[in-house]
Amino acid sequence: MVISARSEQWSFGNVDTLINMSRTEVSRMKPPLVPFATLIGRELRNEKVEKPFVKFGQAALAKKGEDYFLIKPDCERVPGNPATSFSVFAIFDGHNGISAAIFAKENLLANILSAIPQGANREEWLQALPRALVAGFVKTDIEFQQKGETSGTTVTFVVIDGWTVTVASVGDSRCILDTQGGIVSLLTVDHRLEENVEERERVTASGGEVGRLNVFGGNEVGPLRCWPGGLCLSRSIGDTDVGEFIVPIPHVKQVKLSNAGGRLIIASDGIWDTLSSDVAAKSCRGLPADLAAKLVVKEALRSRGLKDDTTCLVVDIIPSDMPVLPSTPMKKQNVLSSLFFGKRTLNSTNKTTSKLSAVGVVEELFEEGSAILAERLGKDFPMDTSSGIFKCAVCQVDQPPAEGLTLNSGPFFSPASKPWEGPFLCTNCRKKKDAMEGKRTSKPTVIT
Ligand SMILES: [Zn+2]
Protein backbone atom coordinates (compact mmCIF):
# COMPACT_ATOMS: atom_id res chain seq x y z
CA MET A 1 0.00 0.00 0.00
CA VAL A 2 2.77 2.43 1.04
CA ILE A 3 4.69 1.65 -2.10
CA SER A 4 1.87 2.46 -4.47
CA ALA A 5 1.15 5.72 -2.62
CA ARG A 6 4.75 6.76 -3.18
CA SER A 7 4.45 5.99 -6.88
CA GLU A 8 1.52 8.36 -7.12
CA GLN A 9 3.55 11.10 -5.44
CA TRP A 10 6.14 10.65 -8.14
CA SER A 11 3.75 10.92 -11.01
CA PHE A 12 1.74 13.84 -9.63
CA GLY A 13 4.52 15.66 -7.68
CA ASN A 14 6.14 18.96 -8.58
CA VAL A 15 9.17 18.23 -10.75
CA ASP A 16 11.04 21.42 -9.69
CA THR A 17 10.77 20.49 -6.07
CA LEU A 18 12.21 17.12 -6.81
CA ILE A 19 15.15 18.57 -8.72
CA ASN A 20 15.97 20.85 -5.81
CA MET A 21 15.92 18.04 -3.38
CA SER A 22 19.09 16.52 -2.16
CA ARG A 23 20.17 13.22 -3.60
CA THR A 24 19.45 11.42 -0.35
CA GLU A 25 15.98 12.85 -0.12
CA VAL A 26 15.17 11.71 -3.65
CA SER A 27 16.52 8.25 -3.05
CA ARG A 28 14.39 8.08 0.10
CA MET A 29 11.27 8.97 -1.89
CA LYS A 30 12.05 6.68 -4.78
CA PRO A 31 10.04 3.51 -4.70
CA PRO A 32 12.43 0.82 -3.51
CA LEU A 33 12.84 -2.29 -5.61
CA VAL A 34 10.25 -4.78 -4.52
CA PRO A 35 11.67 -8.22 -3.88
CA PHE A 36 10.09 -10.95 -5.98
CA ALA A 37 8.93 -12.83 -2.87
CA THR A 38 7.04 -9.73 -1.72
CA LEU A 39 5.30 -9.46 -5.08
CA ILE A 40 4.29 -13.10 -4.91
CA GLY A 41 3.06 -12.55 -1.36
CA ARG A 42 1.00 -9.60 -2.52
CA GLU A 43 -0.51 -11.69 -5.31
CA LEU A 44 -1.48 -14.34 -2.80
CA ARG A 45 -3.00 -11.75 -0.50
CA ASN A 46 -5.04 -10.33 -3.37
CA GLU A 47 -6.29 -13.83 -4.11
CA LYS A 48 -7.30 -14.20 -0.49
CA VAL A 49 -9.35 -11.04 -0.71
CA GLU A 50 -11.24 -12.61 -3.60
CA LYS A 51 -11.48 -16.00 -1.92
CA PRO A 52 -13.09 -15.97 1.51
CA PHE A 53 -11.80 -17.60 4.64
CA VAL A 54 -13.81 -20.58 5.82
CA LYS A 55 -13.90 -21.08 9.59
CA PHE A 56 -15.90 -23.80 11.24
CA GLY A 57 -16.87 -25.34 14.53
CA GLN A 58 -18.78 -28.45 15.54
CA ALA A 59 -20.67 -29.58 18.61
CA ALA A 60 -22.76 -32.67 19.28
CA LEU A 61 -24.49 -34.59 22.02
CA ALA A 62 -25.62 -38.15 21.38
CA LYS A 63 -28.78 -39.83 22.65
CA LYS A 64 -28.94 -42.78 20.27
CA GLY A 65 -25.56 -42.37 18.61
CA GLU A 66 -26.99 -42.22 15.07
CA ASP A 67 -25.75 -38.77 14.02
CA TYR A 68 -22.61 -38.57 11.93
CA PHE A 69 -20.90 -35.61 10.33
CA LEU A 70 -18.23 -34.90 7.73
CA ILE A 71 -15.81 -31.96 7.72
CA LYS A 72 -13.40 -31.71 4.78
CA PRO A 73 -12.01 -28.18 4.50
CA ASP A 74 -9.17 -29.07 2.12
CA CYS A 75 -10.65 -30.70 -0.98
CA GLU A 76 -9.19 -29.84 -4.40
CA ARG A 77 -10.97 -29.76 -7.76
CA VAL A 78 -7.62 -30.43 -9.41
CA PRO A 79 -5.68 -32.75 -7.09
CA GLY A 80 -2.39 -31.19 -6.03
CA ASN A 81 -3.46 -27.64 -6.89
CA PRO A 82 -4.38 -25.66 -3.74
CA ALA A 83 -5.77 -22.81 -5.88
CA THR A 84 -8.68 -25.13 -6.77
CA SER A 85 -9.64 -25.80 -3.17
CA PHE A 86 -13.19 -26.20 -1.90
CA SER A 87 -14.69 -27.42 1.37
CA VAL A 88 -17.36 -29.93 2.26
CA PHE A 89 -19.52 -30.08 5.39
CA ALA A 90 -22.24 -32.65 5.91
CA ILE A 91 -24.57 -34.13 8.51
CA PHE A 92 -26.02 -37.66 8.39
CA ASP A 93 -28.81 -38.41 10.86
CA GLY A 94 -29.31 -42.18 10.82
CA HIS A 95 -32.39 -44.18 11.76
CA ASN A 96 -33.04 -47.90 12.37
CA GLY A 97 -29.31 -48.37 12.74
CA ILE A 98 -26.13 -46.55 11.82
CA SER A 99 -24.88 -48.36 8.72
CA ALA A 100 -26.56 -46.04 6.16
CA ALA A 101 -25.20 -42.93 7.89
CA ILE A 102 -21.68 -44.36 7.98
CA PHE A 103 -21.88 -45.63 4.39
CA ALA A 104 -23.04 -42.22 3.12
CA LYS A 105 -20.33 -40.43 5.10
CA GLU A 106 -17.67 -42.68 3.57
CA ASN A 107 -18.88 -42.87 -0.03
CA LEU A 108 -21.09 -39.94 -0.98
CA LEU A 109 -18.40 -37.33 -1.68
CA ALA A 110 -16.45 -39.62 -4.04
CA ASN A 111 -19.68 -40.61 -5.83
CA ILE A 112 -20.60 -36.95 -6.36
CA LEU A 113 -17.15 -36.00 -7.64
CA SER A 114 -17.06 -38.95 -10.05
CA ALA A 115 -20.17 -37.51 -11.76
CA ILE A 116 -18.45 -34.21 -12.61
CA PRO A 117 -16.85 -34.23 -16.08
CA GLN A 118 -13.05 -34.46 -15.98
CA GLY A 119 -11.15 -31.30 -16.84
CA ALA A 120 -14.01 -28.93 -16.02
CA ASN A 121 -12.87 -25.40 -15.17
CA ARG A 122 -14.21 -23.72 -12.02
CA GLU A 123 -17.31 -22.29 -13.67
CA GLU A 124 -18.17 -25.56 -15.43
CA TRP A 125 -17.50 -27.48 -12.23
CA LEU A 126 -19.92 -25.33 -10.23
CA GLN A 127 -22.52 -25.62 -12.99
CA ALA A 128 -22.19 -29.41 -13.11
CA LEU A 129 -22.34 -29.74 -9.33
CA PRO A 130 -26.16 -29.74 -8.83
CA ARG A 131 -26.58 -32.60 -11.31
CA ALA A 132 -23.56 -34.44 -9.89
CA LEU A 133 -25.09 -34.19 -6.41
CA VAL A 134 -28.26 -35.91 -7.69
CA ALA A 135 -26.21 -38.65 -9.40
CA GLY A 136 -24.01 -39.10 -6.32
CA PHE A 137 -26.96 -39.40 -3.92
CA VAL A 138 -28.72 -41.97 -6.15
CA LYS A 139 -25.52 -43.95 -6.75
CA THR A 140 -24.80 -44.08 -3.01
CA ASP A 141 -28.34 -45.28 -2.31
CA ILE A 142 -28.06 -48.05 -4.93
CA GLU A 143 -24.69 -49.18 -3.55
CA PHE A 144 -26.03 -49.22 0.01
CA GLN A 145 -29.09 -51.24 -1.06
CA GLN A 146 -26.78 -53.82 -2.62
CA LYS A 147 -25.33 -54.43 0.84
CA GLY A 148 -28.73 -55.72 1.88
CA GLU A 149 -28.98 -53.57 4.99
CA THR A 150 -32.13 -51.79 6.07
CA SER A 151 -31.13 -48.65 7.98
CA GLY A 152 -31.56 -45.17 6.54
CA THR A 153 -30.13 -41.70 6.92
CA THR A 154 -30.88 -38.06 6.25
CA VAL A 155 -28.14 -36.16 4.42
CA THR A 156 -27.44 -32.45 4.36
CA PHE A 157 -24.39 -31.96 2.17
CA VAL A 158 -22.75 -28.54 1.74
CA VAL A 159 -20.06 -27.65 -0.81
CA ILE A 160 -18.33 -24.27 -0.45
CA ASP A 161 -16.21 -22.95 -3.32
CA GLY A 162 -15.25 -19.32 -2.89
CA TRP A 163 -18.44 -17.38 -2.23
CA THR A 164 -20.61 -20.06 -3.85
CA VAL A 165 -22.50 -22.38 -1.51
CA THR A 166 -24.25 -25.48 -2.85
CA VAL A 167 -26.50 -27.50 -0.54
CA ALA A 168 -28.08 -30.88 -1.29
CA SER A 169 -30.39 -32.53 1.19
CA VAL A 170 -32.73 -35.45 1.82
CA GLY A 171 -34.66 -35.79 5.06
CA ASP A 172 -35.02 -33.22 7.79
CA SER A 173 -31.54 -32.09 8.76
CA ARG A 174 -31.36 -28.43 7.84
CA CYS A 175 -28.91 -25.85 6.63
CA ILE A 176 -29.66 -22.19 7.31
CA LEU A 177 -27.79 -19.11 6.13
CA ASP A 178 -27.35 -16.04 8.31
CA THR A 179 -26.11 -13.11 6.25
CA GLN A 180 -25.02 -9.60 7.05
CA GLY A 181 -27.96 -7.51 8.05
CA GLY A 182 -29.62 -10.29 9.99
CA ILE A 183 -31.36 -12.06 7.11
CA VAL A 184 -31.84 -15.71 8.02
CA SER A 185 -32.82 -18.06 5.21
CA LEU A 186 -33.34 -21.78 4.77
CA LEU A 187 -31.19 -23.49 2.14
CA THR A 188 -32.86 -26.89 2.55
CA VAL A 189 -36.43 -28.21 2.38
CA ASP A 190 -37.78 -30.52 5.09
CA HIS A 191 -38.75 -33.87 3.61
CA ARG A 192 -41.21 -34.72 6.36
CA LEU A 193 -44.52 -36.31 5.36
CA GLU A 194 -46.31 -34.36 8.09
CA GLU A 195 -45.28 -31.01 6.68
CA ASN A 196 -44.87 -31.57 2.97
CA VAL A 197 -48.11 -32.10 1.03
CA GLU A 198 -46.36 -32.47 -2.34
CA GLU A 199 -44.27 -35.30 -0.96
CA ARG A 200 -47.36 -36.99 0.54
CA GLU A 201 -49.02 -36.92 -2.86
CA ARG A 202 -45.92 -38.25 -4.58
CA VAL A 203 -45.48 -41.13 -2.09
CA THR A 204 -49.14 -42.08 -2.33
CA ALA A 205 -49.07 -41.95 -6.16
CA SER A 206 -46.00 -44.21 -6.15
CA GLY A 207 -47.71 -46.87 -4.07
CA GLY A 208 -46.94 -45.91 -0.48
CA GLU A 209 -49.53 -45.49 2.23
CA VAL A 210 -49.41 -42.40 4.41
CA GLY A 211 -51.06 -42.39 7.81
CA ARG A 212 -50.55 -42.12 11.55
CA LEU A 213 -49.74 -44.83 14.00
CA ASN A 214 -52.87 -46.56 15.35
CA VAL A 215 -52.88 -47.38 19.03
CA PHE A 216 -55.30 -47.46 21.99
CA GLY A 217 -58.26 -48.87 20.13
CA GLY A 218 -57.78 -47.08 16.83
CA ASN A 219 -56.65 -43.66 18.06
CA GLU A 220 -54.17 -42.05 15.72
CA VAL A 221 -51.00 -40.75 17.33
CA GLY A 222 -47.76 -39.10 16.25
CA PRO A 223 -46.74 -37.58 12.92
CA LEU A 224 -47.75 -38.83 9.48
CA ARG A 225 -45.74 -41.86 8.47
CA CYS A 226 -45.23 -43.96 5.40
CA TRP A 227 -46.39 -47.60 5.51
CA PRO A 228 -45.03 -50.21 5.45
CA GLY A 229 -42.09 -49.19 7.61
CA GLY A 230 -43.53 -46.24 9.53
CA LEU A 231 -40.95 -43.71 8.37
CA CYS A 232 -41.75 -40.00 8.93
CA LEU A 233 -39.43 -38.89 6.13
CA SER A 234 -40.24 -38.90 2.41
CA ARG A 235 -36.64 -38.90 1.21
CA SER A 236 -33.49 -40.54 2.56
CA ILE A 237 -30.52 -42.67 1.66
CA GLY A 238 -31.07 -46.32 2.56
CA ASP A 239 -34.41 -47.55 3.96
CA THR A 240 -34.38 -50.49 1.56
CA ASP A 241 -37.25 -52.16 3.43
CA VAL A 242 -39.58 -49.15 3.47
CA GLY A 243 -40.14 -48.78 -0.26
CA GLU A 244 -38.53 -47.23 -3.30
CA PHE A 245 -40.87 -44.22 -3.13
CA ILE A 246 -38.68 -43.00 -0.25
CA VAL A 247 -36.23 -41.57 -2.78
CA PRO A 248 -32.61 -40.42 -2.39
CA ILE A 249 -33.05 -37.54 -4.87
CA PRO A 250 -31.93 -34.39 -3.03
CA HIS A 251 -33.30 -30.89 -3.01
CA VAL A 252 -30.42 -28.77 -4.32
CA LYS A 253 -29.89 -25.07 -3.84
CA GLN A 254 -26.90 -23.03 -4.99
CA VAL A 255 -26.31 -19.43 -3.92
CA LYS A 256 -23.49 -16.94 -4.22
CA LEU A 257 -22.88 -14.81 -1.15
CA SER A 258 -21.98 -11.14 -1.38
CA ASN A 259 -18.39 -10.43 -0.33
CA ALA A 260 -19.71 -9.48 3.10
CA GLY A 261 -19.91 -13.23 3.72
CA GLY A 262 -22.28 -15.21 5.88
CA ARG A 263 -22.69 -17.99 8.42
CA LEU A 264 -24.10 -21.46 7.76
CA ILE A 265 -25.67 -23.50 10.54
CA ILE A 266 -26.03 -27.15 9.55
CA ALA A 267 -27.76 -29.31 12.14
CA SER A 268 -29.82 -32.43 12.74
CA ASP A 269 -33.47 -32.29 13.84
CA GLY A 270 -32.37 -32.42 17.49
CA ILE A 271 -31.71 -28.70 17.01
CA TRP A 272 -34.58 -27.76 14.71
CA ASP A 273 -37.30 -29.49 16.74
CA THR A 274 -36.46 -27.02 19.48
CA LEU A 275 -35.09 -23.89 17.81
CA SER A 276 -36.44 -21.91 14.86
CA SER A 277 -33.92 -20.83 12.23
CA ASP A 278 -34.07 -17.27 13.53
CA VAL A 279 -33.50 -18.19 17.16
CA ALA A 280 -30.60 -20.49 16.29
CA ALA A 281 -28.94 -17.77 14.20
CA LYS A 282 -29.49 -15.03 16.76
CA SER A 283 -28.33 -17.13 19.69
CA CYS A 284 -24.75 -17.33 18.43
CA ARG A 285 -24.15 -14.07 16.55
CA GLY A 286 -20.87 -12.37 17.35
CA LEU A 287 -19.21 -15.60 18.49
CA PRO A 288 -16.50 -17.48 16.61
CA ALA A 289 -17.72 -20.62 14.82
CA ASP A 290 -16.47 -23.17 17.36
CA LEU A 291 -18.13 -21.42 20.30
CA ALA A 292 -21.23 -20.72 18.20
CA ALA A 293 -21.77 -24.44 17.51
CA LYS A 294 -21.52 -25.24 21.22
CA LEU A 295 -23.92 -22.46 22.10
CA VAL A 296 -26.56 -23.57 19.57
CA VAL A 297 -26.50 -27.10 21.01
CA LYS A 298 -26.68 -25.73 24.55
CA GLU A 299 -29.59 -23.49 23.57
CA ALA A 300 -31.48 -26.42 22.03
CA LEU A 301 -31.02 -28.52 25.15
CA ARG A 302 -31.99 -25.74 27.55
CA SER A 303 -35.74 -26.02 27.09
CA ARG A 304 -36.33 -29.77 26.94
CA GLY A 305 -33.08 -31.60 27.60
CA LEU A 306 -31.49 -34.24 25.40
CA LYS A 307 -34.39 -35.90 23.55
CA ASP A 308 -32.59 -36.83 20.34
CA ASP A 309 -29.14 -36.90 18.78
CA THR A 310 -28.15 -33.27 18.42
CA THR A 311 -25.38 -32.27 16.02
CA CYS A 312 -24.47 -28.79 14.85
CA LEU A 313 -21.87 -27.48 12.42
CA VAL A 314 -21.27 -23.75 12.16
CA VAL A 315 -19.38 -22.53 9.08
CA ASP A 316 -18.36 -18.90 8.64
CA ILE A 317 -17.53 -17.70 5.14
CA ILE A 318 -15.75 -14.43 5.82
CA PRO A 319 -13.89 -11.86 3.75
CA SER A 320 -10.74 -11.69 5.87
CA ASP A 321 -8.90 -13.63 8.50
CA MET A 322 -10.88 -12.28 11.40
CA PRO A 323 -12.04 -14.45 14.27
CA VAL A 324 -15.71 -13.48 14.17
CA LEU A 325 -18.25 -12.64 11.51
CA PRO A 326 -19.17 -8.98 12.10
CA SER A 327 -22.72 -8.80 13.33
CA THR A 328 -24.78 -5.84 12.23
CA PRO A 329 -28.38 -6.98 12.40
CA MET A 330 -30.98 -4.48 11.25
CA LYS A 331 -34.21 -4.58 13.17
CA LYS A 332 -36.52 -4.00 10.23
CA GLN A 333 -35.08 -6.89 8.25
CA ASN A 334 -35.23 -9.16 11.27
CA VAL A 335 -38.96 -8.70 11.49
CA LEU A 336 -39.26 -9.37 7.77
CA SER A 337 -37.15 -12.50 7.89
CA SER A 338 -39.09 -14.01 10.77
CA LEU A 339 -42.25 -13.67 8.69
CA PHE A 340 -40.80 -15.83 5.98
CA PHE A 341 -38.40 -18.12 7.75
CA GLY A 342 -39.69 -18.42 11.29
CA LYS A 343 -41.64 -21.63 10.70
CA ARG A 344 -40.23 -24.98 9.80
CA THR A 345 -43.23 -25.79 7.62
CA LEU A 346 -41.82 -23.83 4.72
CA ASN A 347 -42.01 -26.10 1.71
CA SER A 348 -42.60 -23.67 -1.08
CA THR A 349 -39.15 -22.70 -2.18
CA ASN A 350 -40.38 -19.85 -4.37
CA LYS A 351 -40.88 -17.64 -1.36
CA THR A 352 -37.30 -18.22 -0.26
CA THR A 353 -36.03 -17.43 -3.72
CA SER A 354 -37.87 -14.19 -4.21
CA LYS A 355 -37.13 -13.12 -0.66
CA LEU A 356 -33.38 -13.65 -0.82
CA SER A 357 -32.98 -12.02 -4.21
CA ALA A 358 -35.18 -9.11 -3.21
CA VAL A 359 -32.89 -8.01 -0.42
CA GLY A 360 -29.76 -8.50 -2.53
CA VAL A 361 -27.93 -10.45 0.15
CA VAL A 362 -27.16 -13.42 -2.03
CA GLU A 363 -27.36 -14.24 -5.69
CA GLU A 364 -29.59 -17.22 -6.44
CA LEU A 365 -27.83 -19.50 -8.90
CA PHE A 366 -29.87 -22.71 -8.83
CA GLU A 367 -32.73 -24.39 -7.01
CA GLU A 368 -34.53 -27.64 -7.84
CA GLY A 369 -36.33 -30.14 -5.67
CA SER A 370 -38.17 -32.46 -8.06
CA ALA A 371 -38.16 -36.17 -7.21
CA ILE A 372 -38.28 -37.12 -10.93
CA LEU A 373 -34.85 -38.26 -12.07
CA ALA A 374 -35.29 -37.16 -15.71
CA GLU A 375 -36.00 -33.60 -14.57
CA ARG A 376 -32.87 -33.57 -12.46
CA LEU A 377 -30.35 -35.07 -14.85
CA GLY A 378 -31.41 -33.03 -17.87
CA LYS A 379 -31.23 -33.74 -21.58
CA ASP A 380 -27.96 -32.04 -22.42
CA PHE A 381 -25.76 -34.56 -20.70
CA PRO A 382 -22.29 -34.74 -22.28
CA MET A 383 -22.05 -38.04 -24.08
CA ASP A 384 -19.31 -39.60 -26.16
CA THR A 385 -21.04 -41.89 -28.62
CA SER A 386 -18.06 -42.49 -30.90
CA SER A 387 -16.97 -45.63 -29.08
CA GLY A 388 -20.44 -47.18 -29.12
CA ILE A 389 -20.22 -47.37 -25.33
CA PHE A 390 -22.31 -45.04 -23.17
CA LYS A 391 -21.48 -43.87 -19.68
CA CYS A 392 -24.34 -44.07 -17.17
CA ALA A 393 -25.26 -40.59 -15.94
CA VAL A 394 -25.82 -41.89 -12.40
CA CYS A 395 -23.18 -44.52 -11.63
CA GLN A 396 -20.67 -43.69 -14.43
CA VAL A 397 -20.52 -47.33 -15.54
CA ASP A 398 -19.81 -47.91 -19.25
CA GLN A 399 -22.38 -49.95 -21.12
CA PRO A 400 -23.43 -50.54 -24.73
CA PRO A 401 -26.63 -48.53 -25.37
CA ALA A 402 -28.63 -51.63 -26.28
CA GLU A 403 -28.46 -52.81 -22.68
CA GLY A 404 -29.35 -49.54 -20.99
CA LEU A 405 -31.78 -46.70 -21.36
CA THR A 406 -31.04 -44.12 -24.03
CA LEU A 407 -32.46 -40.79 -24.96
CA ASN A 408 -35.90 -40.97 -26.58
CA SER A 409 -36.16 -44.69 -26.03
CA GLY A 410 -39.91 -44.41 -25.96
CA PRO A 411 -40.67 -47.86 -27.39
CA PHE A 412 -39.14 -49.54 -24.35
CA PHE A 413 -41.93 -48.17 -22.21
CA SER A 414 -45.53 -48.97 -21.65
CA PRO A 415 -47.86 -46.51 -23.44
CA ALA A 416 -48.96 -45.11 -20.08
CA SER A 417 -45.53 -43.78 -19.16
CA LYS A 418 -43.79 -40.79 -20.65
CA PRO A 419 -40.81 -41.51 -22.87
CA TRP A 420 -37.50 -41.07 -21.11
CA GLU A 421 -36.06 -37.64 -21.76
CA GLY A 422 -32.99 -37.91 -19.61
CA PRO A 423 -29.44 -39.02 -20.36
CA PHE A 424 -28.20 -42.59 -20.75
CA LEU A 425 -28.76 -44.87 -17.77
CA CYS A 426 -27.30 -48.36 -17.30
CA THR A 427 -29.63 -51.31 -16.73
CA ASN A 428 -29.17 -51.15 -12.98
CA CYS A 429 -29.87 -47.41 -12.64
CA ARG A 430 -32.80 -47.68 -15.00
CA LYS A 431 -34.38 -50.28 -12.71
CA LYS A 432 -33.81 -47.92 -9.80
CA LYS A 433 -35.44 -45.04 -11.70
CA ASP A 434 -38.52 -47.16 -12.49
CA ALA A 435 -38.81 -48.36 -8.90
CA MET A 436 -38.58 -44.81 -7.52
CA GLU A 437 -41.43 -43.76 -9.80
CA GLY A 438 -43.57 -46.59 -8.48
CA LYS A 439 -43.08 -48.84 -11.53
CA ARG A 440 -42.08 -52.06 -9.85
CA THR A 441 -39.36 -54.04 -11.54
CA SER A 442 -41.65 -57.09 -11.37
CA LYS A 443 -44.17 -55.30 -13.59
CA PRO A 444 -43.55 -55.54 -17.33
CA THR A 445 -42.14 -52.15 -18.26
CA VAL A 446 -40.42 -53.43 -21.39
CA ILE A 447 -42.44 -54.09 -24.51
CA THR A 448 -40.65 -56.09 -27.17
ZN1 LIG B 1 -25.83 -46.69 -13.70
TrEMBL record:
Gene3D superfamilies: PPM-type phosphatase domain. Residues 48-317 form the PPM-type phosphatase domain. Transmembrane segments: none annotated. This is PPM-type phosphatase domain-containing protein. It comes from the Eukaryota. CDD domains: PP2Cc (cd00143). It comes from Hibiscus sabdariffa (roselle). Pfam families: PP2C.
